[in-house]
Design a protein that fits this description.
Largest sheet: 5 strands, parallel
Structural class: alpha/beta
Strand order of the largest sheet: 1-12-11-2-10
Helix content: 25-40%
Number of helices: 8
Oligomer: single chain
Distance between the termini: 18 Å
Number of strands: 12
Shape: globular
Strand content: 25-35%
Radius of gyration: 19 Å
């Protein structure tokens, strides 16, 4: 995907012909010849992939619902995944094109904690996070590099303590074996709820199960490379919740063309 801000440095570098280029063609994330891999190749070629109706047994499927019902339908899919033993922290990730709106990341992160957090208690102590509220047990993501704490932009973890220390709110998050302490101000500036993340932020990551919210209302964001990025994050199973028309629109849209002059 292009950078959020100006330019397209890596695209321009490749297009310039001035640098040696190695193209990776062997599929390592998914099973070669599987439904996800085939869908990714179809999208790259500009073809609509085969998307059978939703079934928890299928490697790739779509649950077609109107935009107004997409968020609630996605929550039901997450419930089913968690019920069958899917790990809501390391094994499952919800992706959405946008932050705002009924199907946006902020709204989904408000709806998902009661389902995905086994320690969820609405009466328990909470802290303000970047774009939401956090309670003990919640999945969070670091939003900027903090070399002092040893936590990097994109690292995912979970809140393990929220309490008072010397009359100030003291927050602890665990990122694997690493535990990092935050003040209230640091948590509000650096940590974000992470049950759902944007497709842009998912780049470079992978999860066994990915559930993608793809409403037709996300028109401005629906591009071929965005759809490819979303589906290719899943290692074993991808469920799309939304509109088949949104998929067709995305594949037909090559995305913004940036004329930077660098090439």
């Amino acid at each position: 995907l292009p950078p959020v801000s100006y330019g397209q440095p890596f695209t321009d570098m490749l297009a310039s012909g001035r640098f040696p280029v190695v193209r990776l063609s062997k599929i390592l994330r998914q099973s070669e010849g599987g439904a996800i891999a085939k869908a990714c190749q179809a999208i790259r070629d500009g073809r609509v992939p085969v998307l059978p109706p939703y079934s928890k047994e299928r490697e790739l499927s779509i649950l077609e619902v109107p935009d107004a019902d997409a968020a609630a339908a996605l929550v039901d899919v997450v419930k089913e995944v968690v019920r069958e033993g899917g790990d809501p922290f390391a094994g499952l990730q919800v992706l959405a094109p946008m932050k705002k709106g009924a199907c946006g990341v902020h709204s989904l992160n408000h709806m998902l904690p009661p389902i995905a957090n086994p320690d969820f208690d609405p009466a328990s102590p909470s802290c303000k996070l970047l774009g939401g509220i956090g309670r003990v047990g919640d999945k969070v993501q670091q939003m900027r590099n903090n070399y002092e704490k040893g936590v990097l932009n994109g690292d995912q973890g979970r809140l393990i303590a929220i309490g008072d220390a010397r009359r100030q709110l003291h927050i602890v998050a665990a990122f694997g074996a690493l535990e990092a302490a935050y003040t209230a101000a640091e948590a509000a500036a650096e940590l974000s709820p992470a049950y759902a993340v944007t497709i842009h932020r998912s780049q470079g990551s992978e999860w066994p199960t990915v559930v993608v919210c793809l409403p037709l209302g996300a028109r401005r964001m629906l591009t071929r490379n965005l759809l490819y990025t979303a589906i290719s994050r899943g290692k074993c199973r991808v469920v799309i919740v939304g509109s088949r028309k949104a998929i067709e629109r995305a594949i037909a849209t090559l995305g913004c063309q940036r004329f930077s002059g660098v090439k």
